[in-house]
Design goal:
Layout lengths: L2 H26 L12 E7 L7 E6 L1 E2 L7 H17 L7 E4 L15 H4 L4 H11 L1 H10 L5 H8 L2 H19 L2 E3 L3 E4 L2 E3 L2 E3 L5 E5 L1 E2 L10 E2 L21 E4 L2 E5 L8 H9 L4 E6 L1 E2 L29 H8 L12 E6 L1 E2 L6 E2 L3 E4 L2 E4 L11 E7 L1
Helix pairs in contact: 2-7, 4-5, 5-6
């Protein structure tokens, strides 16, 4: 080999080493912003009179990717909402706070690079996620389950950190404010609670909700979603045989139905058998205008026999009100419930849904004239 070629090879080798080192250093950089998005929150439903039995308090936040830059960042925002509720006299030692579906799932974005938060599409953001965490992504891809292994890997790659953040964040809020807290939901691989700690497994991804007590610890096991929605079935595993949990709280026995699990009469029958007095429904409807569009029907393979309307015959909004909580159709013996929707704009993925409460078949719903992102967060309160 000629001296010139040897010199060329050395230069190329040094350049490759420099590129690898630069890339490694770049992936380790995680700038953190102290900026908090809109902290306004309005009390849009306040049914009943304060008493000794406590209350169901739904918090419908207005969130964006920047709110998930770190666990502490999101905690400050949710704490601000809870503090405003406390200032209005809506929090006591029997309060059950309900947060929306997937409020914990977006924790996969915590501690990432600015490029992720500044992306214009969800696809672009996920590309930055994998590029910024190459080894974690490849390891998760090898372990991925389901038909969409890429989306599975995106959520699986940071699952342990997500589980830790979820418990520290929502358990901490429950303890700080002295409330029982239904922590929306989070997508994790085969989650379970052991010795007061939330753990992950190596199995399929499940959309699950954990209830935290006033001591900040989980009450019982995570409630898995039985029937994931249309947009999630390729990577979130259904759990149609999962037990529906009912937990004891200072305000009464509480059951949790995640999203469209609240549409199935059979689920209410199971909760009736277990003596559920209260029902929390963390929910999430994808699309800024989905709430007013035709209902697409049940995401499971079969439609319950006693449902007397078909997809397309009613709007998404009307379907939720006809199928969910303690109205005449579900046949629930619980005396109160609240359905709380996730709101905000996550890159090009918007959301819709108006939260509502129900007591003995009488509904209270927030009155909002538009379905676009940008309006402030909501408090939905129901005195028991």
């Amino acid at each position: 080999m000629s001296p010139l070629r040897k010199t060329f090879n050395v230069i190329v080798g040094l350049l490759l080493i420099a590129m690898v080192i630069s890339y490694a250093l770049w992936t380790g950089q995680r700038p953190v912003s102290l900026y908090l998005s809109d902290l306004r929150i309005q009390l849009t439903v306040n049914e009943g009179q304060p008493g000794e039995r406590g209350n169901l308090l739904g918090i419908q936040p207005e969130l964006s990717p920047s709110d998930y830059q770190s666990r502490e960042h999101l905690q400050r925002k949710l704490s601000a909402y809870l503090q405003q509720a406390r200032d209005q006299g809506l929090i006591n030692d029997k309060t059950i706070v309900v947060l929306p579906e997937h409020v914990g799932t977006w924790l996969f974005a915590s501690g990432e690079k600015d490029q992720l938060y500044q992306s214009t599409t969800l696809k672009e953001a996920m590309t930055w996620l994998s590029v910024s965490n190459p080894l974690q992504f490849l390891h998760a891809l090898i372990q991925a389950k389901g038909r969409n292994r890429i989306d599975d890997a995106y959520l699986r790659m940071k699952a342990q950190a997500m589980a830790n953040d979820y418990q520290m964040l929502f358990g901490g809020l429950a303890k700080t404010f002295g409330v029982t807290l239904v922590a929306g939901s989070i997508v994790l691989p085969d989650p379970s609670v052991n010795n007061g700690l939330l753990h992950i497994g190596a199995g399929a991804l499940y959309n699950s909700s954990v209830v935290f007590g006033t001591d900040g610890l989980p009450i019982g096991q995570p409630q898995r979603q039985l029937y994931p929605g249309f947009a999630e079935r390729d990577y979130i595993h259904p759990a149609p045989t999962a037990e529906l949990n009912v937990v004891d709280t200072p305000a009464g026995r509480l059951g949790v139905l995640i999203g469209s699990d609240s549409w199935y009469p059979g689920n209410y029958a199971q909760l009736n058998e277990k003596g559920a007095e209260l029902i929390a429904v963390p929910a999430f409807v994808v699309g800024n205008d989905r709430w007013s569009k035709p209902w697409r029907g049940f995401s499971s393979a079969s439609t319950p026999a006693d449902i007397n309307f078909k997809p397309g015959e009613t709007s998404e909004a009307e379907a939720w009100h006809r199928l969910t909580l303690t109205g005449a159709h579900p046949g629930s013996t619980a005396h109160a419930g609240v359905s709380v929707f996730m709101r905000g704009q996550f890159w090009d993925r918007g959301s819709s849904g108006h939260s509502f409460a129900n007591r003995r078949g009488l509904a209270g719903a927030e009155q909002i004239s538009d379905d676009q992102p940008g309006h402030s967060a909501r408090l939905i309160n129901l005195w028991l």
